[in-house]
């Protein structure tokens, strides 16, 4: 199968967002949504896939409400979901600083930061809920940073002019996740959540047009089994690992969302991926993942490369007038603090010119020499010590003495399953929350907003909206493994696993994953062109064909088999990658993290084309050419402008 | 670098395991320990052998999945997680022993992978504050002294990897359990459940088959997050206090 082209289907006109003033819409929806009587809730089973910020908080909250929750994670414990690695913080419009923040300002910043490709109603709701999240987390015992007076501390983040980011040192994600995990643990102990760790969802069961369950594999015994419910919630995270090298955890994957897409859920804006500018560069072909360094380093570090190509002198031997502080030169007013997408592209440009530093020329300097002179080493150590230690551990270089080397890396995916205002996908009864959906960040996510969205969806939005669906479907036909649809889905899953094990070729799963990742990074990474994307679209089906003839997966399916897990995820990457390229090719404009070289201003900045592309692209799986459904985006409150940072 | 690895191989929980020897060549000092194992596994797959199973995920020292005893030390010679240990800590020609966590409460699943679900059950016994969604008061309603907040944070840093148990000659989970108790019990929000929390979590810890503490201190030495040893004394104090108060029905 391949995607030679696409067709355009009916536009999406109803997102279920209520009309009326934007500040009232969430209240309106909550009031209009039907409720399920507490006594009836225990009759409903809800499957939640994933235990990160979105899934963990949703599972705990639904169980508290009285539903029977059946929850899954592929990790050995729900506490290890990848939300744990988030560093910086979580935004909330508390205005504790009295610095002019408000729900409307957070809403405005997020719509603008997303380069006007997000749905206003959803973003406003996110800003409203942000304040409740902080209350909830504090009540759970999340140890946020505090001032001496005992009140919560905040800091500013990425390009925003107010201080609204709550944090727990550089481990905010860990602390928020443990809060959700502990709430979930309480419900597991109470018998309200049936937890399946080390169990991976491999397919979705859709009966009579409704999501009714999943097929999952026990990763220890290899047993493939079915689980049934009245609704299914996917909280399985993003798909950044399509690129092989990313800041995602090794096992984060796209199988749950991609299988749901194949069963009817539209996939929206798959080409919207975020490349983070400050990551530690790769050191060689053995590299398995990339490590992020907090963006806060750009507050005091200066970014530069040598002025001339192929200058291999050590940094200290390059005199001041032979250095190019290119961000300060090109963007004098924002300097080193330009947004993530701009900083990433600028680094790529200077490296493409042959001025990159370090092995392979894939790096730029982030230099603290001036900061150390200005503030003293002790002050720098106090502010950034843990980050410097991490850098030193990974690179064996002392960043107090030689400048750090950084390079952009894939970090987050704004695209995901299309959802309406209720976070329901186009498959009735199938909901998607957190990074797994496409909803709130448009074409670029602001720093400290991923944690906010995951918890907003899980603690507050989904538990309110899923009631409406369940109230409208008070009873479901009982299902068992003899149902013809279930038999078919089970057989497809087992056939796929069996095929992977039986090819017995001469290439490892990782070798294919790396090849695909390099292709995607080259042609669907920081800068995209029609020519490159066309090339990638030609090449991906060839890799897929080779995969199915040369893959080698050792062992059997009836045991703990990490190679089989990996290979099965790559099957889905090889299909999703193609849709990402197609989406990037069709969107012949630049916006946020999606930079098409053909669409730039004379200064080389991203040029949006609102008249043609002010829509979310929701793709329907057809088995052949995908069908594009456009959801037009209207901006009643924040009027689109071209971003400028010069 | 060229290395000799002696790796614990065990097909599953029901079979006996044994050490197997492998030679790994072309190891770069910049590789992490897990990337070195990746290269071994790539070779094993191509040779038609079963690759070595090991737990890992974030590879940046925070998820707590990786769990290897390297040359007899939990997470190896540096005070960090295995994923953040780099091959520059070893020398060309070294022989390195790689084993799973060894503790009766952590049965081996396969090769270097163990079952740490006992930790989850200890948390389920009381390692939480009961605050159902929606019931929270305004965050600033209860100020928390900075010293208490910092102390809570210091203990909340535990990543649940299990190195403390693996390092302890008694296979004790006192450091893990005390980290959560000290995180929550020091906060005003955690005070209503202060006694039941410590009594229930300690009881569950014992029920899981973890050993007792004889103050060897290996746990705190192995902990990649620096949970301090006095944490255990503080838990014992909480436990004795709770026993005396015993508000339980």
TrEMBL record, chain B:
<dbReference type="InterPro" id="IPR050573">
    <property type="entry name" value="SDH/FRD_Iron-Sulfur"/>
</dbReference>
<feature type="domain" description="4Fe-4S ferredoxin-type">
    <location>
        <begin position="149"/>
        <end position="179"/>
    </location>
</feature>
<feature type="domain" description="2Fe-2S ferredoxin-type">
    <location>
        <begin position="1"/>
        <end position="102"/>
    </location>
</feature>
<keyword id="KW-0479">Metal-binding</keyword>
<protein>
    <submittedName>
        <fullName>Succinate dehydrogenase/fumarate reductase iron-sulfur subunit</fullName>
    </submittedName>
</protein>
<keyword id="KW-0411">Iron-sulfur</keyword>
<dbReference type="InterPro" id="IPR017900">
    <property type="entry name" value="4Fe4S_Fe_S_CS"/>
</dbReference>
<keyword id="KW-0408">Iron</keyword>
<dbReference type="InterPro" id="IPR036010">
    <property type="entry name" value="2Fe-2S_ferredoxin-like_sf"/>
</dbReference>
<dbReference type="InterPro" id="IPR017896">
    <property type="entry name" value="4Fe4S_Fe-S-bd"/>
</dbReference>
<dbReference type="InterPro" id="IPR001041">
    <property type="entry name" value="2Fe-2S_ferredoxin-type"/>
</dbReference>
<dbReference type="InterPro" id="IPR012675">
    <property type="entry name" value="Beta-grasp_dom_sf"/>
</dbReference>
<dbReference type="Pfam" id="PF13085">
    <property type="entry name" value="Fer2_3"/>
</dbReference>
<dbReference type="InterPro" id="IPR009051">
    <property type="entry name" value="Helical_ferredxn"/>
</dbReference>
<dbReference type="Pfam" id="PF12838">
    <property type="entry name" value="Fer4_7"/>
</dbReference>
<dbReference type="InterPro" id="IPR025192">
    <property type="entry name" value="Succ_DH/fum_Rdtase_N"/>
</dbReference>
<dbReference type="InterPro" id="IPR006058">
    <property type="entry name" value="2Fe2S_fd_BS"/>
</dbReference>
<comment type="similarity">
    <text>Belongs to the succinate dehydrogenase/fumarate reductase iron-sulfur protein family.</text>
</comment>
């Amino acid at each position: 199968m391949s995607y030679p082209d696409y067709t355009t289907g009916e536009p999406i006109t109803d997102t279920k967002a209520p009309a009326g003033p934007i500040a009232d819409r969430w209240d309106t929806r909550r009031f209009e949504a039907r409720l399920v009587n507490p006594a009836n809730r225990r009759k409903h089973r809800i499957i939640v896939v994933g235990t990160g910020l979105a899934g963990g908080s949703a599972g705990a909250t639904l169980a508290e409400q009285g539903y029977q929750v059946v929850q899954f994670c592929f990790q050995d414990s729900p506490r290890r979901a990848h939300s744990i690695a988030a560093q910086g913080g979580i935004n909330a419009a508390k205005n504790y600083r009295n610095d002019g923040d408000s729900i409307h300002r957070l809403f405005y910043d997020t719509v603008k930061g997303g380069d006007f490709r997000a749905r206003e109603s959803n973003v406003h709701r996110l800003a409203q809920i942000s304040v409740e999240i902080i209350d909830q987390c504090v009540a759970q015992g999340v140890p946020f940073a505090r001032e001496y007076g005992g009140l919560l501390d905040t800091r500013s983040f990425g390009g925003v002019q107010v201080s609204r980011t709550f944090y727990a040192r550089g481990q905010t994600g860990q602390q928020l996740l443990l809060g959700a995990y502990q709430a979930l643990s309480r419900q597991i102990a109470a018998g309200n959540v049936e937890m399946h760790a080390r169990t991976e969802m491999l397919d979705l069961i859709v009966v009579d047009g409704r999501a009714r369950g999943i097929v999952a594999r026990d990763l220890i015994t290899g047993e493939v089994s079915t689980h049934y419910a009245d609704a299914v919630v996917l909280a399985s995270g993003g798909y950044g690992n399509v690129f092989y090298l990313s800041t995602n955890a090794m096992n984060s994957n796209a199988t749950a969302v991609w299988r749901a897409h194949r069963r009817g859920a539209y996939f929206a804006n798959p080409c919207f991926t975020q490349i983070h500018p400050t990551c530690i560069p790769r050191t060689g072909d053995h590299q398995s993942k990339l490590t992020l360094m907090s963006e806060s380093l750009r507050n005091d570090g200066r970014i530069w490369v040598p002025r001339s190509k192929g200058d291999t002198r050590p940094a200290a031997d390059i005199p001041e007038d032979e250095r190019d502080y290119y961000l300060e030169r090109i963007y004098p007013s924002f300097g080193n603090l330009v947004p993530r997408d701009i900083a990433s592209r600028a680094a790529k440009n200077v490296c493409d010119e042959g001025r990159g530093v370090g092995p392979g020329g894939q790096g730029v300097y982030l230099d603290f020499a001036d900061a150390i002179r200005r503030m003293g080493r002790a002050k720098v150590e106090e502010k950034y010590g843990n980050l410097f230690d991490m850098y030193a551990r990974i690179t064996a270089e002392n960043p107090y003495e030689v400048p750090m080397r950084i390079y952009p890396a894939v970090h987050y995916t704004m695209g995901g399953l299309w959802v309406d205002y209720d976070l329901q996908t186009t498959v009735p009864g199938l909901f998607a929350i957190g990074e797994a959906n496409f909803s709130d960040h448009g074409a670029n996510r602001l720093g400290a907003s991923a944690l906010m969205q995951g918890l907003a969806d899980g603690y507050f939005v989904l538990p309110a909206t899923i009631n409406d669906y369940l109230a409208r479907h008070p009873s479901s036909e009982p299902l068992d493994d003899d149902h013809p649809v279930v038999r078919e889905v089970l057989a497809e899953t087992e056939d796929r696993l069996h095929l992977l094990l039986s090819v017995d070729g001469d290439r490892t799963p990782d070798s294919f994953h790396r090849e695909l990742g390099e292709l995607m990074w080259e042609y669907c990474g920081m800068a995209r062109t029609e020519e490159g994307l066309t090339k990638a679209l030609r090449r991906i089906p060839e890799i897929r064909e080779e995969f199915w003839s040369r893959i080698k997966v050792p062992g059997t399916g009836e045991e703990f088999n990490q190679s089989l897990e990996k290979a099965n995820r790559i099957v889905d990457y090889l299909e999703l990658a193609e849709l990402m390229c197609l989406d990037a090719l069709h969107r012949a404009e630049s916006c946020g993290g999606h930079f098409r070289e053909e669409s730039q201003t004379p200064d080389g900045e991203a040029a949006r084309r609102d008249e043609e592309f002010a829509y979310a692209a929701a793709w329907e799986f057809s088995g052949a050419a995908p069908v594009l459904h456009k959801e037009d985006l209207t901006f009643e409150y924040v009027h689109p402008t071209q971003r400028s940072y010069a | 670098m060229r290395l000799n690895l002696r790796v614990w191989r065990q097909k599953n929980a029901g079979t006996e395991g044994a050490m197997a020897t492998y030679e790994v060549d072309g190891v770069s000092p910049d590789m992490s320990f897990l990337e070195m194992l990746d290269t071994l596994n790539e070779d094993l797959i191509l040779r038609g052998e079963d690759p070595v199973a090991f737990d890992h995920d974030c590879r940046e020292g925070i998820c707590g999945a990786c769990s290897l005893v390297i040359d007899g030390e939990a997470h190896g010679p540096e005070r960090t997680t295995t994923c953040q240990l780099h091959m520059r800590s070893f020398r060309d020609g070294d022989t390195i022993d790689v084993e799973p966590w060894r503790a009766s409460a952590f049965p081996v699943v396969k090769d270097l992978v163990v079952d740490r679900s006992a930790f989850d059950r200890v948390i389920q016994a009381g390692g939480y504050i009961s605050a159902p969604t929606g019931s929270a008061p305004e965050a600033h309603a209860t100020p928390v002294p900075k010293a208490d907040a910092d102390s809570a944070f210091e203990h909340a840093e535990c990543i649940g990897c299990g190195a403390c148990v693996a390092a302890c000659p008694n296979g004790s989970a006192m450091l893990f359990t005390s980290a959560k108790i000290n995180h929550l019990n020091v906060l005003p929000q955690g005070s209503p459940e202060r006694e039941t929390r410590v009594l229930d979590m300690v009881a569950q810890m014992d029920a899981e088959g973890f050993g007792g503490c004889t103050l060897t201190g290996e746990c705190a030495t192995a902990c990649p997050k620096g949970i301090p040893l006095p944490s255990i004394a503080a838990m014992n104090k909480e436990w004795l206090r709770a026993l005396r108060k015993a508000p339980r029905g």
